[in-house]
Structure formats: structure tokens, C-alpha cells
Specification:
The complex is a heterodimer of chains A (about 140) and B (about 250).
Chain A lengths: L1 H16 L7 H12 L2 E10 L2 E4 L7 E4 L4 E4 L4 E9 L2 E9 L5 E11 L3 E6 L8 E8 L1
Antiparallel strand pairs in A: 1-2, 1-3, 1-9, 3-4, 4-5, 5-6, 6-7, 7-8, 8-9
Chain B lengths: L8 H27 L13 E20 L10 E2 H4 L5 E13 L5 E17 L3 E3 L3 E5 L6 E15 L7 E14 L5 H4 L7 E13 L3 E12 L7 E13 H4 L6
Parallel strand pairs in B: 1-4
Antiparallel strand pairs in B: 1-3, 1-11, 2-6, 3-4, 4-7, 5-6, 7-8, 8-9, 9-10, 10-11
Classes of the chains: A alpha+beta (about 140), B alpha+beta (about 250).
């Protein structure tokens, strides 16, 4: 009887102090993919060298990311995208082709992402000041 | 060619906690039944009259709210504050078993093991802004609905009230342990923010009728046992009823 009681107590203690599932980069990528995909993202603002340009209410650049990992933008580029975690920082890697078969590939860092708001950034080649792109999504 | 289906271990993993809870409940009932006819020999059980053990089934309505404060969550996610914040008590329920015994004089103790379906309003104490682009947001989104197994030993202090026949009143207090058995969402897992175990304190009143049934109203205040980047305070009001199994099933415990 005493052994049973002790067993119950030990089991309860172990059960309560048991560790929780650990997060991995896969968890972050999973959440980011869910937030990013199957939407069209419209560029609202562009911040460069401390100057912010607004495109709200104007014809603006847009890009769509689909669940099947394909992407298409308003400049006519279509291709593939990948979300990856580098140095604990989420990134979108895009490889695309234009209508004229010109290839383009770039990596943008995800500064912030939600269901409707996203901020991406990148360093233009040869420059030390980063450019921030502020997007709003519409389904 | 037909290929054999791979063994689905994920369903077992997902249900592991449920199996464990079931085992725990069965073991708890087994302990109650086994202890009842014996006289205590242990010094800790000495003041407890185990002959008086009574088994109840219990059910209650639970109103819950969780308050949480981000501390150094490093995720790039933004959840619009107005969409996730809901500073209200929401309704869930609780079912389980409880056994009661007498202490010296008129006071009693009770130990309950219950399964709780928590439906909690969520109050995010900290919010961020990237004005004018994002007005108010949080980096973390908590689960609002989850299931816990709760173990709560309570001390019941008899309140002598004159002029009320057939009913006895008790004030109760005691610790409370909750373990989350439902699956944790991906959103809640980032930065290892969500912890499964809660510890808390319970206070309340109970009205009993001839050990047949009793009504109770408890306030439960819980917090995470282990350290986390998003500490949660889980506040609950519980209003419920216990029915003596002896009267419910017309069988004797002893």
C-alpha cells in the first residue's frame, strides 16, 4: 500500500515537472509559412536612408506567395520561394524568372510578420544601409 | 503493389497524456478504496479519521481568464492586439472525483482530481507598436482553449452558523496543481513560452447537505511552475456540485 502511494506521488511529481515540447526553427518556419502563404502582399511603404516613401492609395508593387512554394509578383516574375532560419533570423529566399527569361534571386530578412502586416529588409549590394519594405496583405 | 501503411505513432504520442490521466484517475480511486477500511499508522495520517472517507463525483462550471506578460520573446511575429486580446472571463467546465475525510473536531479535508476544459479570455499586459505601420501588436499568441488535469488537496474549515438546519458551511483553502494535457499550438510553442504545469492556490466556500451532496464556489489563482519568457497567471472562478457516490450509485465505499 505504502509503495502504491509512493508510486502515485512520484508519478505525479514527474508528470507535473515534465518538460514541455521544445521549439525548433521548424516551429517558427511553420508559423511564418502559415502567415505568408496564399495571400497577395502589397507594398505600402519603403524606407531607405531614413526616408520613407508611401505607396498607400497608389498603384504599387505586389507579390503573392502560394502554399505550393511558388511566387509571382506584379513585375511579371514567377518562381519559387523558401522560408529558412539563418542565425535565428527568418528569411525568404526567392528564385524567379521574368517573362523574358531573365533570372533573379534574392534573400529578404523577415523583420516582422503577421496575418496582415509584414516587414522585410535587405542590404542592396555594396551598401551598408538597409532598405525596409512594409507590406499589407489582402487575400 | 500495395505497400503496408506505416505505423502511426503520432496518434499514440498525442493521446499519451490522456492515457496517463486515465491511469492516474484509476489509481487515485484505487487508493481511496484501498485506504478506506484501514486505520492510519503513519504519523502524518494520525489526526485523519480515514473511516470517514467519502467519495464524490464532481462537476462544475469554470470561468477563466489568463493574464500574460512577454519577457524577452524574440520572434518576428506580430499578432494585432485587438484581435488577440480579450480581457474577460470565459466559460469552461470541469469533471472529476473527490474524496473527503474528517479531521479533528468538525473540520475536514478533501482531495479532488478533475479534468478541466479551460476556455480562457486572454489579457496581454504588454503590447508593442511600429507606428504608423502597425499600431499595437504582441509577439506571442496564447492558446485560449486547453485541457488540464487538476489535483487539489483542500482544508475545509467548519463555519458554525445558527438557524440553518440540514446544511453545513465550510471555508476552504489549499494548493492546486494543474497539468496541461491538450496539444500546444505552434504559436504557443515559440521560445518555449508555454509551460504545461501550473501551481496555484484555491479559496472558497462550500455548503453541504448531510454528506449527500454539496455545492461549492472556488476562486483559483494559478501560475507557471517553471520559468518562461511568457509567465501566465490563470484566474478561475469555479461553481459546482459534488454528489456522494454512495447515494448516487447506491453502493458502499467501505
Amino acid at each position: 500500500m505504502k509503495t502504491t502511494v509512493q508510486l502515485v506521488i512520484i508519478t505525479i511529481v514527474v508528470f507535473f515537472l515534465g518538460s514541455c515540447k521544445k521549439d525548433t526553427s521548424g516551429v517558427k518556419i511553420g508559423i511564418a509559412s502559415k502567415m505568408l502563404s496564399n495571400k497577395v502582399w502589397y507594398l505600402d511603404h519603403k524606407q531607405e536612408g531614413g526616408v520613407t516613401k508611401s505607396y498607400v492609395g497608389q498603384a504599387t508593387y505586389s507579390i503573392s506567395f502560394l502554399k505550393n512554394k511558388t511566387t509571382k509578383d506584379s513585375d511579371g516574375y514567377t518562381g519559387l520561394y523558401l522560408i529558412e532560419n539563418q542565425n535565428n533570423q527568418l528569411q525568404i529566399r526567392v528564385s524567379a524568372l521574368s517573362v523574358n527569361n531573365n533570372s533573379i534571386s534574392y534573400v529578404h530578412v523577415i523583420e516582422s510578420i503577421g496575418d496582415t502586416k509584414m516587414i522585410l529588409s535587405y542590404f542592396p549590394s555594396g551598401q551598408t544601409e538597409k532598405i525596409k519594405l512594409f507590406y499589407t496583405s489582402r487575400n | 503493389m500495395n505497400t503496408p501503411n506505416p505505423i502511426d505513432t503520432s496518434s499514440f504520442k498525442a493521446n499519451f497524456h490522456s492515457y496517463f490521466v486515465l491511469l492516474l484517475l484509476v489509481m487515485s480511486i484505487g487508493v481511496v478504496h484501498a485506504q478506506a477500511p484501514r486505520k492510519p499508522t503513519n504519523w502524518m495520517l494520525a489526526p485523519i479519521n480515514t473511516d470517514s472517507l467519502v467519495l464524490y463525483v464532481t462537476g462544475s462550471v469554470v470561468f477563466s481568464k489568463q493574464s500574460l506578460k512577454e519577457r524577452g520573446v524574440t520572434t518576428p511575429f506580430n499578432y494585432l492586439y485587438d484581435e488577440v486580446n480579450n480581457n474577460v472571463y470565459k466559460t469552461g467546465f470541469s469533471l472529476g472525483v473527490r474524496f473527503e475525510g474528517k479531521l479533528k473536531r468538525n473540520n475536514r479535508y478533501s482531495v479532488s482530481v478533475t479534468m478541466n476544459q479551460i476556455n480562457a479570455g486572454t489579457y496581454y499586459k504588454k503590447k508593442f507598436t511600429l507606428s504608423p505601420f502597425i499600431e499595437e501588436f504582441t509577439h506571442f499568441k496564447s492558446d485560449k482553449i486547453f485541457t488540464t488535469i487538476n489535483i487539489a488537496p483542500h482544508y475545509k474549515y467548519f463555519i458554525p452558523l445558527r438557524g440553518i438546519k440540514n446544511y453545513t458551511f465550510y471555508a476552504i483553502a489549499g494548493p492546486s496543481f494543474d497539468y496541461r494535457i491538450s496539444k500546444i499550438s505552434q504559436e504557443s510553442l515559440v521560445n518555449r513560452a508555454t509551460k504545461r504545469a501550473f501551481i496555484g492556490a484555491d479559496f472558497g466556500v462550500e455548503i453541504e447537505r448531510d454528506s449527500r451532496y454539496l455545492f461549492f464556489a472556488h476562486y483559483k489563482l494559478g501560475t507557471n511552475i517553471s520559468q518562461t519568457t511568457v509567465p501566465v497567471k490563470l484566474n478561475r472562478f469555479e461553481i459546482g456540485m459534488c454528489i456522494n457516490t454512495k447515494h448516487l450509485f447506491n453502493s458502499k465505499i467501505k
